[in-house]
Amino acid sequence: MEKKKNILFLFADDMKYSTIGALGNPEIKTPNLDELAKSGTSFTNAHIPGGSFAAVCMPSRAMLNTGRSLFHLNHFGEMIPEEHALLGETLLQNGYNCFGTGKWHNCTRSYARSFNDGAEIFFGGMYDHWKVPVYHFDESGQYANRFHDVMNPAFDNVVVDRIYDHVNGGTHSTDLFADAACRYLEGYDSDKPFYMYVAYMAPHDPRSMPQEFVDMYDLDEISLPANFYREHPFDFGIKNVRDEALLPHPRDEHDVKIQIRDYYAMISHLDHTVGKIIETLKKTGMYDDTIILFSADNGLAVGEHGLLGKQSTYEHSIKVPFIISGPGIPENETRDGYIYLFDIFPTLCDLNDIPIPETVEGVSFRKMICDSSAHTREYLFSVFGDKVRSIKDYEYKLIEYKCGDMRRKQLFKISEDPLEMHDLFWCEESQPIVERLHRLLRQYAEDWDDLSSEEGQKFWLEYKTAEKEIWAY
Known about the structure:
The chain is α/β, with parallel strands linked by helices and 473 residues long. The protein folds into 2 domains: 6-370, Alkaline Phosphatase, subunit A (3-Layer(aba) Sandwich), CATH 3.40.720.10; 380-466, Arylsulfatase, C-terminal domain (2-Layer Sandwich), CATH 3.30.1120.10. Mean pLDDT is 92; it is low at 147-162 and 468-473. Helix 6 (173-186) packs parallel to helix 8 (253-283). It is built from 14 helices and 18 strands. It has helices at 31-39, 57-66, 87-93, 108-114, 157-163, 173-186, 211-214, 253-283, 315-318, 344-351, 366-370, 431-447, 454-460, 463-466, and strands spanning 6-12, 40-43, 46-47, 50-51, 97-103, 117-122, 133-134, 166-167, 194-199, 290-296, 319-320, 322-325, 333-335, 339-340, 380-384, 388-392, 397-403, 406-412.
């Protein structure tokens, strides 16, 4: 029997789809990701289904690792039930050694089920990149004293040191996790294939990085996005979300440019370590037998539509980079078919002739990798909390909002207006499209069990009576 391929999964935090040089951004410097794209296949329409609350990354990572859809998670994805198969767990059961490093924003028990080795493990959402409190790998899987919530740490490092194994000091999180990955590869001595999950905390704020990466960018040469607004056209209830509070309202162009520059610098730093990990693969002779994946848990506005964060269903928030490279993967090609991140789990099983667990709901896109005309999904359903729902096909996208007494719809012809700048909802000729997509949106809400979720019930409450009314703008 042919040996299964090694798998290296590089996973960024808050990195939107438009931040890789080779895939259409001439201002950002990502030579290693550019090379990865040239050596493999890039999916230009990879998405998340959105999130149930402001910390979108928690359910996103739970969906990725379970292959399950948004409303079939438990506790927003923080707690993953034993009966839900995990990607790492499935690979372990099929002869892999599984190594994890970096951010694990889900429960400790699910981490223990997913890996039989690891280093520099961070259980939490965000932290000071230079002082990350991390765990060593624990064979028992207990991690008994794990601090429950480090989203906004307000305690001194002495306390942290008692909660975690140690507090990293002086090494940026991006280097911390990449170095752990390189050490594992350099010392790997097994006949088994490996699965390595490198979950970066970058480019999530607080935006800090070694100065050399800031120096790569001239602020005067940073462009504002074409869909930059000083203020979002209407309030849909996210102004007080932490991400949106990073800058005052209305947005100042200079301040947004600084945010973009620092965002790019963090990505360039991450890109540098991607190169180190891939170079280590080559030096150890394992590169030719390794499938490499690169993606991110969600996107980020960073000035688009007057927003900064990911709490919407605009493309900049739900669309992410996805590159796959390695044996059997076409080189220097792109695919425009729709995929969700939770489709990766069944696809990796499919590529390695591993049975897909029954609890997995994602759809394998293996066929799309080798056939540019193949599509596994014709529509994408996305949500944010109890405020936003959207549906799109390959031509149009409908977004519906509910916030207090406010009801609003937007319609974009995304095939011609990918930056979602021209709202066609008011056009009389658009109404049949709006009605068709709204029916489809409602059907997806029913099929995905959105209607029975707490967030969905809040969103759809009184919505029926409002459908035939004139929507206030």
